[in-house]
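Side project, low priority. Logging it here so it doesn't get lost.
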Amino acid sequence: MLYCLFYGTRAEKGIEVFRACQVEALKEQSRTRATVKVKHKQAATGQGEIFQSLDEMGPDEQLVDLGLEHEAATRTILERTPAQPDAILYYQLWQQVLARNIVRKVDVNKIAAKLRTEGRLLIPDWEKGKHVPEGRYRLQRPKK
């Protein structure tokens, strides 16, 4: 790790901004490491890279870790959402997910919408034409 991020706020927007910055920093760090790795190899061997793009080189460990964080965020959403008839407000839930997982709020929005589409999450306040949940929406897991 080449950096240290720190945040201190009582505003709900704080964790949202922090995670967005953290994810972008991890992506940039990954790109930089790949570039340095290619340049180092070229300098050491005198041979160019056969790949035209760094994206073609296999998955970077940090980007794979971000994929695992999305899976963990999905589990956190399902674990933190009570079963019917109880509910949690979305603005409370997304903050808990961001506090536990390295994901952005936009990622949590997409995960929640997907879980709703799959029937694994109920959002009774969902309005027609919405693509992602709003903070005031109640979320529930279906009864088993």
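Brief comment: DSSP finds four helices and two strands in the chain.
Revisit when time allows.
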